[in-house]
Design goal:
Chain lengths: ~300, ~325
């Protein structure tokens, strides 16, 4: 790091040597420091590369995919990997590689959107519960317990029975059955942070309630929630795959990893690549998010270094 | 006690703070009165649980009610803070009254850089841009004696030493030039040489700015060097209050005397062992009847366990003890040795 100031005071330039304008650069944001710590972590970088690769495939699917994922070729069904079709073809003669690439779109969209939904719900409700306490706390946390106790898949199936299959219902149902965990995480860390002396100090220096919550309590309690969020994008992708596998996820013909595994199931034992390849795609993506989550946890805690 | 100056900055009248707990009512502060004039230093001395920190919290309006209950009067420039709205209190905190804490590591937010935290105090009270606020923050850090303040402003609290953190805390507390600074055990968590530096920094800043300081501590040495007047608290009550010299030379309360004789001194030959005060401070749920100090008091007689002695004495020196004369005699005898 060439731009880091010398660590030893005595070696630093005299007080007035640094122009005041130089402050904006490394000044107020702690973002730079977090980024630096994150990129020092090998596993985090590997994870980010994996996630980034999947993300790019999802965004540029039409450019990258060799074929239309829906184009059937009934004279060429369920063929093993070859030069023409790297990942083989499925039972309707569709190019597996293209379907895996297009499937990443569903995985990324559902994974991110459902977790964003869960985090928004969880952060709002968890911070009310943790900071306000009292009755609000009891009501919110008992509700969270109820959602927590209810199995995600069964809950999601119930919701999708009502709304019908599709991407949006899947996002909603995963989000709704996931918020309880971040809410609880945030509440418990708020409970400890709000008693911290620096919160008392902020109060004694005249900070408003809103400022105390947003500037002092949340930043110090959000780290576990963000880490959870990152890791659970992976979990959400698994849930989405499971729903599609069970036939209650996205629409049946959509190029989706869960749908592909479900279709490949019929060929279990003799054309295993049909379910193995999309399964590997799921594992690869989920691992990527887990690595990023772990790296984020280390990077967010300045006291670890 | 009566104010030393004509116009007290703050006067606390019959302050009572109670906490309702499952075990009973804790009377943390029980009918305490004091006042402080601009530029003055008032030392509040007492053991843990004597109510000294709680009084400060009450003054800042930081006692959660319930479970707490604060009654009495806290007049700041004639305005009663106990009836002020939360918004009024908030704009007062930091700007007119601010506070520094015992442990400066836990009092600084670990996720923000130090300079940023100082700037934030300014921004919380004034309409001021980020850059000028930051510049003032750096100036303040220079003023409290942080070397290379421009660079250190970009470091996190954990990169600061204990003394430097306390300096940063002081910079935050004094950022808006408050009229009153509550220093709650400001040097307890620091080692002795750093204590002296911090105390002389506080004195210097006080002189330059005319800040009144309420110095809350259990360390009589710190009070002796810096306070103009001293309030000794025991079990939530005022035991004795006097000018610092009078208190140290002619204490009238056995508790004060006990504190003084349990203190090791370098400037006097030690003729006998240090005498610690026997026993423990009472539980504030069950304060002994009569004078709360009587179970530990060598001067105690029958009346002490029956009747709470009133605060008596002249305007400059008051004490709550039935046997003030005997305490004074004992002190005189001790000094002659």
């Amino acid at each position: 790091m060439t731009d880091t100031p010398p660590l030893i005071d005595e070696a630093a330039p005299p007080k007035d040597a640094v122009p005041a304008a130089a402050f904006g650069i490394r000044g107020q944001t702690q973002f730079g420091d977090i980024r630096r710590r994150f990129f020092r972590n090998k596993l985090a970088v590997i994870g980010l590369t994996m996630v980034g690769l999947v993300f790019l495939l999802a965004v540029f699917a039409p450019l990258v995919a060799p074929d239309d994922p829906q184009a059937q070729n009934l004279s060429l069904t369920a063929r093993p990997p070859s030069a023409a079709h790297w990942f083989g073809t499925d039972e309707l003669g569709r190019d597996q590689l293209s379907r895996v690439i297009y499937g990443s779109r569903i995985a990324i969209v559902v994974g991110l959107a459902s977790i964003v939904l869960a985090l928004v719900l969880g952060v709002i409700l968890g911070s009310i519960a943790g900071y306000r306490g009292g009755k609000a706390d009891s009501v919110i946390m008992r509700t969270a317990d109820a959602f927590f106790a209810f199995p995600l898949l069964i809950g999601a199936i119930l919701i999708i029975l009502v709304t019908g299959r599709g991407v949006v219902p899947v996002i909603l149902s995963i989000g709704i059955f996931t918020w309880a965990v971040p809410a609880r995480l945030l509440r418990s860390s708020i409970l400890s942070v709000r008693e911290a002396e620096y919160v008392e100090a902020a109060r004694s220096l005249g900070a408003s309630k809103w400022r105390i919550v947003t500037r002092h309590v949340l930043p110090n309690s959000l780290a576990p929630v963000l880490v959870y969020g990152m890791v659970s994008v992976g979990t959400a992708i698994v849930a989405e795959t499971a729903l599609s596998f069970l036939g209650v996820g996205v629409k049946p013909n959509v190029a989706d990893w869960g749908n592909m595994i479900s279709a490949g199931r019929a060929f279990f034992g003799f054309k295993d690549y049909l379910w193995e390849i999309p399964s590997l795609a799921v594992v690869f993506t989920v691992l990527g998010f887990v690595f990023v989550g772990d790296g984020l946890r280390d990077a967010l805690d300045p006291r670890l270094r | 006690m009566t104010p030393a100056g004509p116009e007290p900055l703050v006067s606390v009248e019959d302050l009572r703070v109670e906490f309702h707990t499952d075990a009973g009512v804790v009377k943390a502060v029980d009918g305490v009165s004091w006042s402080i004039s601009p530029g003055e230093t008032l030392g509040i001395v007492g053991e843990s649980g004597s109510g000294k920190s709680v009084s400060a919290m009450a003054l800042m309006g930081l006692i959660q009610q319930p479970p707490g209950k604060v009654t009495g009067k806290i007049l700041f420039r004639g305005r009663d803070l106990l009836v002020a709205s939360e918004d009024e209190l908030r704009s007062l905190r930091g700007r007119d009254v601010s506070m520094i804490f015992q442990d400066p590591l836990t009092a600084l937010n670990p996720v923000y850089k130090v300079g940023h935290q100082v700037a934030e105090v300014i921004q919380a009270h004034e309409k001021i841009g980020r850059i000028p606020a930051r510049k003032r923050a750096v100036d303040l850090l220079v003023e409290v004696g942080i070397p290379n303040a421009r660079i250190r402003a970009d470091e996190y609290p954990h990169q600061f030493s204990g003394g430097m953190r306390q300096r940063a805390m002081i910079a935050m507390a004094l950022a808006l030039d408050p009229a009153l600074l509550l220093a709650d055990e400001p040097t307890t968590a620091l080692d002795v040489t750093v204590q002296a530096q911090i105390m002389s920094l506080l004195s210097k800043l006080q002189e330059e700015r005319g800040t009144a300081i309420v110095l809350i501590t259990h360390d009589l040495g710190v009070v002796a060097g810096h306070a103009d007047r001293v309030l000794v608290m025991y079990a939530g009550k005022v035991a004795e209050a006097a000018g610092a010299d009078a208190l140290f030379h002619a204490p009238r309360h056995p508790y004060t005397l006990g504190l003084l004789t349990s203190l090791a001194r370098l400037d006097r030959r030690r003729t006998e062992r240090l005498r610690p005060i026997p026993g423990q401070p009472p539980s504030l749920i069950r304060v002994p009847p009569g004078c709360p100090f009587h179970p530990r008091c060598p001067f105690a007689t029958d009346i002490c366990s029956k009747e709470m002695p009133p605060l008596t004495g002249g305007a400059a020196h008051i004490a709550a003890c039935h046997h003030q004369d005997r305490v004074a005699e004992a002190r005189a005898a001790a000094i002659e040795v």
